[in-house]
Amino acid sequence: MSERLEGTEEVAPGRGAGLEFLVENDDALAALVNVIAVIGDNEYFLGRRVSEWASSGPLLESAAACAAITQDKLGHSRAIYALLEELPWANRPSGLQGEVDRSRRYSVSFLDDPLPSWSSVVAALAFVAPALNTLLAAVERSSYDALARRAHRILDEEKLTSAYGEGLVRQISYEERGRRLFQERVDDILPEMLLWFGPEGEGGIEAMKAEGLISQNNEEMRQSYLDRLMPLLEGCGIEVPGVKRSEDDTRWEYGELEWAKWNQLQRRLER
Q: Which helix (H) or strand (E) is 235 found in, with range?
């Protein structure tokens, strides 16, 4: 029989005891679990949706690129999902290996169904992938070292995919018909992606920032995302109604966002 005293650290280890990572703030830990599930699910479903075009891209090279991007995205999701098993949080989401493994999804609604057109594939790569990279950049120096290391590696691997996605936007926007089709997808997806970073002052993100788990708050991430996205869209003649630089040129303004339609837990638009 053990002689350890009940109530001591030996009987009831603190959160993360036995692991290098330790955080006592439950709000920060809950938000961290959520952020990891959100990154994992969006990587998984982006890879899965792109994979469905690996044999039907408009050009042989685009089909090959879809296959390569699929391999990267599914690999990233597996690397991120593994972190969920390390975190001392009850009822944490499990990683996905199949689309119906879990009823609750933490991915944007734009990826719910197979992408119906090549312009949808371009939009997913142009809008979802940079949003993921923005969030990964915000945790690249996280006090949770395992997450920081994975974020750094994924961002390094994403350089080619980002350049390819930007090239697709320029390519599809070159002709009037392609630009019109892509514009329709922009109108669909941009409102959800602006919501994706969460409302300003969100408690979980603020708690993560206080613990050094993330370096940017909701609005800082949204501004970083628009910094990445807007020059490309404007350069391609894509209209983004309501999004413009402030008069003092210090930030992007985007009007009121429809938070009533936003599912904060799953970080997705309710449709």
A: helix 218-235
